[in-house]
Protein backbone atom coordinates (compact mmCIF):
# COMPACT_ATOMS: atom_id res chain seq x y z
CA UNK A 1 0.00 0.00 0.00
CA UNK A 2 1.23 3.48 -0.80
CA UNK A 3 2.66 5.60 2.01
CA UNK A 4 0.06 8.28 2.72
CA UNK A 5 1.03 11.52 4.44
CA UNK A 6 -0.73 14.87 4.83
CA UNK A 7 1.38 16.00 1.85
CA UNK A 8 -0.07 13.28 -0.42
CA UNK A 9 -2.62 14.33 -3.04
CA UNK A 10 -6.10 12.87 -3.42
CA UNK A 11 -6.18 10.86 -6.65
CA UNK A 12 -9.77 12.05 -7.30
CA UNK A 13 -9.71 15.81 -6.67
CA UNK A 14 -5.95 16.42 -6.80
CA UNK A 15 -5.92 18.44 -3.56
CA UNK A 16 -3.60 17.78 -0.61
CA UNK A 17 -4.83 15.14 1.81
CA UNK A 18 -4.03 17.40 4.78
CA UNK A 19 -5.72 16.30 8.00
CA UNK A 20 -8.96 15.10 6.38
CA UNK A 21 -10.07 11.45 6.78
CA UNK A 22 -8.40 9.25 4.15
CA UNK A 23 -9.27 6.10 2.22
CA UNK A 24 -6.60 3.99 0.54
CA UNK A 25 -6.38 0.52 -0.96
CA UNK A 26 -3.53 -1.91 -1.57
CA UNK A 27 -2.82 -3.10 -5.10
CA UNK A 28 -5.98 -4.99 -6.16
CA UNK A 29 -6.32 -4.29 -9.92
CA UNK A 30 -3.56 -5.50 -12.26
CA UNK A 31 -4.91 -4.27 -15.61
CA UNK A 32 -3.85 -0.65 -16.26
CA UNK A 33 -6.79 -0.22 -18.66
CA UNK A 34 -9.39 -1.22 -16.04
CA UNK A 35 -11.32 1.88 -14.87
CA UNK A 36 -10.79 0.74 -11.27
CA UNK A 37 -7.00 0.80 -11.65
CA UNK A 38 -6.97 4.45 -10.48
CA UNK A 39 -7.98 3.19 -7.01
CA UNK A 40 -4.98 0.88 -6.69
CA UNK A 41 -2.25 1.97 -4.29
CA UNK A 42 -3.48 5.57 -4.04
CA UNK A 43 -4.92 7.89 -1.35
CA UNK A 44 -8.31 9.62 -1.48
CA UNK A 45 -10.22 12.01 0.73
CA UNK A 46 -12.96 9.92 2.30
CA UNK A 47 -15.60 12.38 1.07
CA UNK A 48 -14.23 12.23 -2.51
CA UNK A 49 -14.26 8.44 -2.50
CA UNK A 50 -17.78 8.18 -1.04
CA UNK A 51 -19.11 10.53 -3.74
CA UNK A 52 -17.27 8.83 -6.64
CA UNK A 53 -19.52 7.07 -9.20
CA UNK A 54 -17.27 3.94 -9.20
CA UNK A 55 -17.29 3.55 -5.39
CA UNK A 56 -19.72 0.61 -5.37
CA UNK A 57 -17.73 -1.21 -8.05
CA UNK A 58 -14.51 -0.67 -6.08
CA UNK A 59 -16.09 -2.03 -2.91
CA UNK A 60 -17.50 -5.05 -4.76
CA UNK A 61 -14.16 -5.81 -6.43
CA UNK A 62 -12.29 -5.43 -3.14
CA UNK A 63 -14.63 -7.96 -1.50
CA UNK A 64 -13.97 -10.36 -4.38
CA UNK A 65 -10.29 -9.68 -4.80
CA UNK A 66 -8.22 -12.85 -4.52
CA UNK A 67 -4.55 -12.45 -3.71
CA UNK A 68 -2.15 -15.03 -5.16
CA UNK A 69 0.93 -15.44 -2.99
CA UNK A 70 4.34 -17.02 -3.49
CA UNK A 71 5.30 -19.96 -1.29
CA UNK A 72 8.17 -18.74 0.93
CA UNK A 73 10.90 -21.23 0.12
CA UNK A 74 13.34 -19.50 2.52
CA UNK A 75 11.01 -20.27 5.45
CA UNK A 76 9.30 -23.54 4.45
CA UNK A 77 11.66 -25.09 1.87
CA UNK A 78 10.44 -26.45 -1.48
CA UNK A 79 6.65 -26.77 -1.63
CA UNK A 80 5.32 -30.30 -1.12
CA UNK A 81 2.21 -32.05 0.12
CA UNK A 82 3.97 -32.94 3.38
CA UNK A 83 4.90 -29.31 4.03
CA UNK A 84 1.36 -28.11 3.29
CA UNK A 85 0.01 -30.70 5.74
CA UNK A 86 2.37 -29.44 8.46
CA UNK A 87 0.86 -25.94 8.08
CA UNK A 88 -2.68 -27.22 8.62
CA UNK A 89 -2.80 -28.81 12.05
CA UNK A 90 -4.48 -30.36 13.86
CA UNK A 91 -5.28 -32.53 10.83
CA UNK A 92 -8.75 -33.40 12.14
CA UNK A 93 -9.75 -29.74 11.64
CA UNK A 94 -8.93 -29.71 7.91
CA UNK A 95 -9.64 -31.68 4.76
CA UNK A 96 -6.65 -31.91 2.45
CA UNK A 97 -6.85 -33.35 -1.04
CA UNK A 98 -4.21 -33.76 -3.74
CA UNK A 99 -5.24 -33.73 -7.41
CA UNK A 100 -3.41 -34.08 -10.72
CA UNK A 101 -4.96 -32.76 -13.96
CA UNK A 102 -3.69 -33.19 -17.52
CA UNK A 103 -2.59 -30.29 -19.71
CA UNK A 104 -5.59 -28.48 -21.18
CA UNK A 105 -8.08 -30.10 -18.79
CA UNK A 106 -10.89 -27.95 -17.42
CA UNK A 107 -13.56 -28.34 -14.77
CA UNK A 108 -16.18 -26.31 -13.00
CA UNK A 109 -18.96 -26.43 -10.47
CA UNK A 110 -19.40 -25.21 -6.94
CA UNK A 111 -16.82 -25.31 -4.17
CA UNK A 112 -16.31 -24.57 -0.50
CA UNK A 113 -13.91 -21.79 0.43
CA UNK A 114 -10.42 -23.29 0.42
CA UNK A 115 -6.73 -22.69 -0.08
CA UNK A 116 -5.23 -23.92 -3.35
CA UNK A 117 -1.49 -24.75 -3.36
CA UNK A 118 0.10 -25.47 -6.75
CA UNK A 119 2.96 -27.97 -6.44
CA UNK A 120 3.75 -28.04 -10.18
CA UNK A 121 2.24 -26.59 -13.33
CA UNK A 122 -0.22 -23.70 -13.57
CA UNK A 123 -3.98 -23.18 -13.58
CA UNK A 124 -6.64 -20.52 -13.74
CA UNK A 125 -9.81 -20.14 -11.69
CA UNK A 126 -12.64 -17.84 -12.60
CA UNK A 127 -15.41 -16.82 -10.25
CA UNK A 128 -17.82 -14.97 -12.52
CA UNK A 129 -16.92 -12.46 -15.21
CA UNK A 130 -15.00 -10.10 -12.92
CA UNK A 131 -12.57 -12.42 -11.15
CA UNK A 132 -10.00 -14.50 -13.05
CA UNK A 133 -6.78 -15.55 -11.37
CA UNK A 134 -3.78 -17.65 -12.35
CA UNK A 135 -1.88 -19.74 -9.84
CA UNK A 136 1.54 -21.05 -10.87
CA UNK A 137 3.98 -23.53 -9.40
CA UNK A 138 4.96 -22.66 -5.81
CA UNK A 139 2.06 -20.23 -5.38
CA UNK A 140 -1.16 -20.40 -3.37
CA UNK A 141 -4.43 -18.51 -3.01
CA UNK A 142 -7.45 -18.43 -0.70
CA UNK A 143 -10.39 -19.21 -2.98
CA UNK A 144 -13.97 -18.17 -2.21
CA UNK A 145 -17.00 -20.39 -1.84
CA UNK A 146 -19.28 -20.57 -4.85
CA UNK A 147 -19.38 -21.32 -8.56
CA UNK A 148 -16.07 -21.57 -10.40
CA UNK A 149 -14.41 -22.59 -13.63
CA UNK A 150 -10.96 -24.22 -13.60
CA UNK A 151 -8.45 -24.71 -16.40
CA UNK A 152 -4.95 -26.19 -16.61
CA UNK A 153 -2.62 -23.70 -18.30
CA UNK A 154 0.30 -24.58 -20.54
CA UNK A 155 1.52 -27.89 -21.86
CA UNK A 156 2.30 -29.53 -18.52
CA UNK A 157 -0.03 -31.32 -16.10
CA UNK A 158 -0.79 -29.63 -12.79
CA UNK A 159 -0.49 -31.05 -9.30
CA UNK A 160 -2.33 -29.14 -6.61
CA UNK A 161 -3.47 -29.41 -3.02
CA UNK A 162 -6.81 -28.04 -1.79
CA UNK A 163 -7.26 -27.40 1.93
CA UNK A 164 -10.60 -26.54 3.48
CA UNK A 165 -12.30 -26.55 6.84
CA UNK A 166 -15.24 -28.95 7.02
CA UNK A 167 -18.45 -27.98 8.83
CA UNK A 168 -18.09 -28.25 12.63
CA UNK A 169 -20.49 -31.21 12.83
CA UNK A 170 -18.18 -33.33 10.64
CA UNK A 171 -14.92 -32.45 12.43
CA UNK A 172 -13.33 -35.21 14.47
CA UNK A 173 -13.01 -34.35 18.13
CA UNK A 174 -9.91 -35.75 19.78
CA UNK A 175 -9.44 -36.27 23.48
CA UNK A 176 -11.33 -38.09 26.20
CA UNK A 177 -14.92 -39.10 25.57
CA UNK A 178 -17.68 -37.54 27.61
CA UNK A 179 -17.42 -39.87 30.62
CA UNK A 180 -17.96 -38.50 34.15
Write the layout of secondary structure elements.
Elements: E1 22-24, E2 43-45, H1 46-51, H2 55-64, E3 68-70, H3 73-76, H4 81-87, E4 95-101, E5 106-111, E6 114-120, E7 122-126, E8 132-136, E9 139-143, E10 146-153, E11 158-164
Explain how this protein is built.
The protein has 180 residues and is of the alpha+beta class. The protein folds into two domains: 1-65, no CATH class; 68-170, Jelly Rolls. Helices cover 15% and strands 33% of the residues. It contains four helices and eleven strands; from the N terminus they run ββααβααββββββββ. The strands form three sheets. A five-stranded antiparallel β-sheet has the order 3-9-6-11-4, with helices on one face. The radius of gyration is 21 Å and the shape is elongated.
From the N-terminal CA to the C-terminal CA, the straight-line distance is: 55 Å
What composes the largest sheet? Answer: 5 strands, antiparallel
Could you spell the SSE succession in H and E letters? EEHHEHHEEEEEEEE
The percent range for helix content is 10-25%
What attributes characterize this protein structure?
4 helices; single chain; four-stranded antiparallel sheet; elongated; Jelly Rolls
Summarize the structure.
The protein is 15% helix and 33% strand. The protein is of the alpha+beta class and 180 residues long.
Amino acid sequence: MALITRHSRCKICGELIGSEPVVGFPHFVRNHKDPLFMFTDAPFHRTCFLAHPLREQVEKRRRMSILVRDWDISVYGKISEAKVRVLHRPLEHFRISRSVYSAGEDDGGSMRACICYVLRGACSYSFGPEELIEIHESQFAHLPEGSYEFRVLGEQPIELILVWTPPKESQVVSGPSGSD
